[in-house]
Amino acid sequence: MIKPEERFFTDSGSYFGAAENPNTEAFLNVWDWDQLHMVKLKGTAKVFPPDEGHEVQILAQFADYLSPEVCAVTIDDNGLITGVSTDPDEDETSFIPHFPFATIPPLANFPTIQCSKLQEPDRLGPGVDLSLYEDKSGNPQMVAFKFNSWWKPLRMQMAWDELHLLGSLPSHPNLLRLDRIILEDVESRVIGFTTKYIPGGTLENPKVPFRFEWLKQLTQVVDFLNLELGIMHQDITPRNLLVDPATYKLVLFDFNFAARGKYNLMDGRDDASSVVFSLYELITSDTHFTSIPPWDRNIDMVQSISEWPCNRELDSDVLVFRSFLNEWVVKRRSDRDMERYLNAPNQLTWPDLPNPPEYDAPFELGKTLDGEPNWVTGVRTRRAAMELGQYCFRWERPPQSRLLKKGENAM
């Protein structure tokens, strides 16, 4: 189930006057990762003071009781609902131009499956479901289904890059590779992908023991990604590390922020440093360094700590872990590390994200100063796309709490 603190996100909004004035009319668009639905909350600055997140707290109280058709909710100054609207003109959901599978040649040889053939046992987190499908032999396959249902230019780019990266990865025991490409049923547009589901949760859970061999596997897979493939993961943390109970091997996943050579390479997010901070967190359960921006962190912050308090079950002494880590870091730092990364012998490549063809079709966005229709191209709302007859995959779904209750009543 999606964690309550991760469920809602304030996407956009506006104050029709000074936000400091409690009587100023305002609206805020809040995205619900559980129902994959945008809700416009309308009220005043008194109930929606800027930058305080009250809109999320208010929506959380009644979101499960709203119909998927509701686009806007009016809230009074006491935080109570005074009206709801299903008027499509209130819908601020952005259009997501998912690409037809046939227009992505590099993925042509990968197996696909229609979205309608997936069953949903659980929702693991924002943009990730636990899913089930039957393979060609009728055998059930439990997978993690990752999808892009919320539009932002950066998210589109990240989804495109991660899909192609996973499709390009060679087989490796410590990496999750692409399983299936998921297509919507009407126009066979790519809406996501699946990977093998590994039960047991991530190493973010301090109750999960940590073995010395897993540290060695982590450094080996990082060396493989960086120095063989020219890929920088850039988000190595305990929450992105699993242990496969079938092989008892460490598995690194989630390539949302990955860099390819200089492309998308971010300051302070090199994988060697991330391994250092991850091991410190794994051993000590101290997470306060995660709140420091990567560009303001330095591995000396933790390596200079004389003793790491052990707050997790380990199979070796803390000094064994630290000694191995220090030797690995010294080797990486002294061996032309960045030069080797940029000149990796088996660098992965894939095409750039193309401009969605739908964006070339002009649509009306307000009026000019002369009162004439203002025609533009590019990013648009879902309602504008639908008015143009462009296909829109609808992501809305019932809240998981309702599905769980229905399941309980059926038993």
From TrEMBL:
Coiled coil regions, renumbered to chain: none
UniProt GO molecular function: ATP binding; protein serine/threonine kinase activity
UniProt xrefs under Gene3D superfamilies: Transferase(Phosphotransferase) domain 1
Substrates-to-products reaction catalysed: L-seryl-[protein] + ATP = O-phospho-L-seryl-[protein] + ADP + H(+); L-threonyl-[protein] + ATP = O-phospho-L-threonyl-[protein] + ADP + H(+)
InterPro entries documented for this protein: Kinase-like_dom_sf, Prot_kinase_dom, Tyr_kinase_AS
Organism: Hyaloscypha bicolor E
Described purpose of this protein according to its UniProt entry: Component of the EKC/KEOPS complex that is required for the formation of a threonylcarbamoyl group on adenosine at position 37 (t(6)A37) in tRNAs that read codons beginning with adenine. The complex is probably involved in the transfer of the threonylcarbamoyl moiety of threonylcarbamoyl-AMP (TC-AMP) to the N6 group of A37. BUD32 has ATPase activity in the context of the EKC/KEOPS complex and likely plays a supporting role to the catalytic subunit KAE1. The EKC/KEOPS complex also promotes both telomere uncapping and telomere elongation.
Domain Protein kinase span(s) in chain numbering: 118-411
Quaternary data: Component of the EKC/KEOPS complex composed of at least BUD32, CGI121, GON7, KAE1 and PCC1; the whole complex dimerizes.
Name of the protein described by the UniProt record: EKC/KEOPS complex subunit BUD32
SMART domains: S_TKc
Domain of life: Eukaryota
